[in-house]
Design goal:
Layout lengths: L5 H9 L9 H13 L3 E8 L2 E7 L6 E6 L10 E3 L2 E3 L7 H16 L5 E6 L7 H7 L7 E4 L7 E5 L1 E10 L14 H13 L5 E2 L3 E2 L1 E9 L9 E10 L3 H7 L1 H4 L3 E8 L2 E2 L8 E4 L13 E4 L14 E3 H19 L1
Parallel strand pairs: 3-6, 3-7, 7-17, 8-16
Antiparallel strand pairs: 1-2, 2-6, 4-5, 5-18, 8-15, 9-13, 9-14, 10-11, 12-13
Amino acid sequence: MDPLDVVALARALIDIDSTTGREREASLWLADHLRSRGFRVAEQPVDDGRFNLVALAGERADVVLSTHVDCVPPFFPSRVEGTRLYGRGSADAKGILAAQVVAAERLRARGCGRVGLLFVVGEERGSDGAIVANTRPIGSRFLVNGEPTGNRLASGTRGVWRVRLRAAGRAAHSSRPELGLSAIDRLIDALVALRSVELPASPALGRTFYTVGLISGGVAPNVVPPSAEAEVLFRTVGPAAEVRRAIEPVAALVAVEEVLEVPPIEMMTVAGFDTAAFAFTTDLALLGNWGRPLLYGPGCVEVAHSEAEHVEIPALERAVDDYVRLVDALLE
């Protein structure tokens, strides 16, 4: 494989199943690849054999290019159709990872040794890799994170507030429902009430919105359900405390248990690049010790996580050039 062929590198990575929790094989392959190319590679243990990768082109890195190794399920391998590269992670974020590696190769080949790479695990569910990485910074001044932004620099991203709504009931035989209390009915009442809550808004990022991503409850079809729960993910535009205050009517019906909070973040931008604000959340809010944040990547979030996930090959190749331009601009 030509190490400067971004499509070949992306396909090699895509073809390794690294859905969250299964990143080890892809991380080992990537560590071997980077070492064979002369990068100084360190592994940051996370858990269960999973680890982040830090790779340096020289003795130190003022600018670090970063993204995540893991992908959402289900895994499916790469294929090229016309100008599109398909496969799980093609847009989010193995295509991006490949572009960053090739950009770092090009910079190092012309004598720029002040660039580094950080590739973390667990971004798609809990960001445990980023949390570990933030405790082990390397003194970099800028962190250019990679997510599918359509080859634009992000001016800002939303945060996340993920909560678990727990409803308690009382079990009874379904032939005598008056003797029980349905937790599922109570949970449904809470979710219906949530629809009418006015959530906080921001001029730059818009209004907070949410998704009910998981729901479960009950023990059997012929039993009044004694328990039920749902996980709700809010895409926040300000402090999570504002959302918590807004949903107080819901909290009167069910218990609200916080699972994860990631704040919204404003990004640094660079002249000469198109910019936009994005509704998704990244690891950047958890990597503050790695330098001033920037966010850029090829691909569109509209196809990420879908069965048609892909990235346009010209956009992938352009990203290599743009990462080089970004590093040059930041080092100046």
